[in-house]
Write a structure and sequence with these properties.
The protein has about 375 residues and is an alpha+beta fold. Helix content is about 40%, strand content about 25%. The strands form 3 sheets. The protein has a 5-stranded mixed sheet, covered by helices on one side. Strands 9, 10, 11, 12 and 13 form a 5-stranded antiparallel sheet that branches. The two termini are about 60 Å apart.
């Protein structure tokens, strides 16, 4: 029997949907407006091999062959390109896309943490020699995110690299023929439908600033209109504003009481934290004495003990005073143990008189060692 699993994860291709939606909305914009805004409806695709440069005119409906230029004479090619641009005036505002063969580009899937998404290009540059046989100085590269998993904190991305010298030579030949690439992409059929632009920013021609200026002006107008729409209801509803002010006055008293309680809680928290801080910063003397007593070997007794400002001094007698420093230093509670006076011999009891000084660690150490 056919059944529907309602617990299964449904993945919606939102990126593809928005691209399609934008393309559909774009069809309603008049051609004259698109050209005025610098938004070309067509673009020029350029393919180059050892013998020829092939030009295609591409738009939303597909692409068609325009011309084929020989690679032997760049001056003739420049004249031919000028004739093509004069015949197809819309290309003056179009992107010139250098289409690379898939065999010229190395692509591979990589795994990265989600935190790397904000500076994805820099992260990949540092790790490029791990993902490919090249380092960042040898290639041009582009990377696009293809998926993410919030549970594992990982994302998948598709990396594409092309040797710098190869792309530089191709661009140099095209520029000599009067063609200035604005993008370098892999030929159609690259996996996952990911669109790369392997052309670095320093090789891309500067675009006309008019579309940005117009976009800024239009955005400013929209913001002004939006502010107007937000202000008109407020301005027209003065009665509602007065009612809200009266309501705020009524709850002001409650707010003051809450603020008073908040301050009281903050004061109590401060006092509690002060006590905790004192506890953590001062050693627990009971633990200190217990540890010191347990470490004293047989035949050793203390006649004097003083603790002050993190330092403990003891005097006593022992059958072997020279071994006491190593015994005490082995404790996690004491450090910097040293004799503060010369060891003397008590001939009557056949023992060593000693005076030791040691630094006592703070209360955190005692807490950890008594858990």
């Amino acid at each position: 029997m056919f059944g529907l699993n309602l617990d299964s994860l449904i993945v919606l291709p939102l990126r593809s949907f928005f691209i399609w939606w934008g393309e559909q909305l774009n069809t309603f914009i008049p051609e004259g407006v698109k050209q005025f805004l610098g938004q070309a409806t067509e673009h020029l695709i350029v393919k180059k091999d050892q013998t020829a440069i092939t030009l295609y005119l591409a738009n939303a409906k597909g692409k068609r062959f325009l011309s084929e230029l020989s690679t032997e004479d760049s001056e003739d090619n420049e004249a031919a390109v000028k004739r093509i641009f004069s015949k197809h005036a819309q290309l003056n505002h179009a992107d010139v896309i250098l289409e690379l063969k898939s065999s010229q580009v190395l692509t591979r899937d990589i795994q990265l943490p989600l935190a790397a998404r904000s500076n994805l290009s820099q992260v990949v540059a540092y790790e490029l020699d791990r993902y490919t046989p090249f380092n960042a100085d040898q290639v041009y590269y582009d990377v696009q995110v293809t998926g993410k998993n919030n549970e594992t904190g990982q994302m998948t991305a598709l990396l594409a690299v092309v040797p710098r010298q190869k792309l530089d030579d191709l661009c140099e030949d095209l520029i000599a023929s009067g063609l200035h690439p604005t993008a370098a992409r892999v030929e159609s059929g690259d996996k996952s439908g990911v669109i790369f632009n392997l052309l670095p920013s320093e090789l891309r021609p500067k675009k006309n600033a008019r579309p940005k200026i117009l976009s800024f002006v239009i955005g400013a107008v929209l913001i002004v209109l939006l502010l107007g729409l937000l202000w008109i209801p407020i301005w027209s509803d003065q009665a509602l504003i007065k009612e809200l002010e009266q309501e705020m006055a009524r709850i002001g008293k409650d707010a003051n009481e809450v603020q008073t309680l908040k301050k009281s809680v903050e004061t109590q928290m401060h006092e509690t934290n002060f006590l905790l801080s004192k506890k953590r910063s001062e050693p627990v003397l009971v633990y200190m004495l217990d540890d010191l007593t347990k470490r004293m070997p047989n035949g050793t007794w203390l006649t004097y003990l003083q603790y002050k400002n993190g330092n403990l001094q003891v005097r006593g007698e022992s059958a072997d005073a020279s071994s006491l420093i190593a015994v005490i230093e082995d404790s996690p509670l004491f450090q910097n143990t040293r004799f503060v006076s010369p060891v003397t011999r008590n001939s009557a009891s056949n023992t060593d008189r000693f005076q030791l000084s040691m630094d006592v660690l703070n209360g955190g150490v005692f807490d950890r060692n008594t858990e």
